[in-house]
Design goal:
alpha+beta; 7-stranded antiparallel β-sheet; 11 strands; TATA-Binding Protein; two-stranded antiparallel sheet
Length: about 170
């Protein structure tokens, strides 16, 4: 049997459970910024570009994932939303959040800078990136930039995107 921790393919039933278990704590920030930046964990201030208002971004994500269910998750009921997919057998896991607050710096008004996903498969990342015209994925839990085009939903580990500090 293959060891967990390498990127070789594993039988479906084992692979699914192991992927689910190993992705429990990872969050992925998906955003748009100028090319050549390192991970957002290395920024001194917010370098992400505004994506749009929270209602606009909810509508655009809903167009990509029509079965998403949005729920306000803050006291103000408008500045933080969580979106869950049906998350049933045979469907990809979907757990997103959007907020008007940006890490490290508050943005103007009702503007979203990041889409945050938990336990995301690369196919879900690619759909979001293409549908919202985004160009970066960062895993702040590890400080890595992620390349969702360099690995598949069957791989146990995400592919790191190389970057060089200026």
């Amino acid at each position: 049997m293959q060891r967990v921790g390498d990127n070789r393919r594993l039988p479906y039933n084992y692979r699914f459970e192991e992927i689910r278990r190993r992705r429990m704590s990872l969050s992925f920030y998906i955003y748009r910024a100028v090319e050549g930046l390192g991970p957002l964990t290395k920024w001194e201030s917010n370098q992400a570009q505004a994506l749009g208002g929270i209602e606009e971004i909810k509508a655009r994500i809903t167009a990509i994932f029509p079965r998403i269910n949005w729920q306000a998750t803050s006291a103000s009921a408008t500045n933080h939303w969580s979106g869950l997919g049906p998350n049933q057998p045979g469907s990809s896991y979907l757990d997103l959040s959007i907020s008007t607050a940006s890490p490290g710096a508050a943005g103007p008004g009702d503007v979203v800078y990041f889409v945050v996903g938990r336990k995301m498969l690369p196919s879900i990342m690619r759909k979001l990136m293409e549908g919202l015209d985004l160009n970066y994925v960062c895993c702040p839990d590890t400080g890595d930039l992620v390349d969702p085009y360099a690995y598949t939903d069957e791989d146990l580990h995400y592919a790191k995107k190389p970057w060089h500090a200026a």
